[in-house]
């Protein structure tokens, strides 16, 4: 049976009115764990090292 629709869900966790956890941060943290460095993860995600630090602060 063909289903033309696909259900997609994204989770964000807010803390004190700001975003604490979102898919982008999770992806970055997982890559840091896999690659062993913030620099390697940030390069793979095509973001600057500074931007990666800002995301994980």
From TrEMBL:
<dbReference type="InterPro" id="IPR036388">
    <property type="entry name" value="WH-like_DNA-bd_sf"/>
</dbReference>
<protein>
    <submittedName>
        <fullName>Transcriptional regulator ModE</fullName>
    </submittedName>
</protein>
<dbReference type="InterPro" id="IPR036390">
    <property type="entry name" value="WH_DNA-bd_sf"/>
</dbReference>
<dbReference type="InterPro" id="IPR051815">
    <property type="entry name" value="Molybdate_resp_trans_reg"/>
</dbReference>
């Amino acid at each position: 049976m063909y289903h033309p629709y696909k259900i997609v869900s994204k989770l964000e966790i807010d803390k004190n009115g700001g975003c604490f956890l979102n898919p982008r941060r999770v992806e970055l943290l997982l890559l840091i764990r896999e690659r062993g460095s913030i620099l390697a993860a940030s390069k793979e995600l095509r973001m600057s090292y500074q931007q990666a630090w800002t995301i994980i602060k």
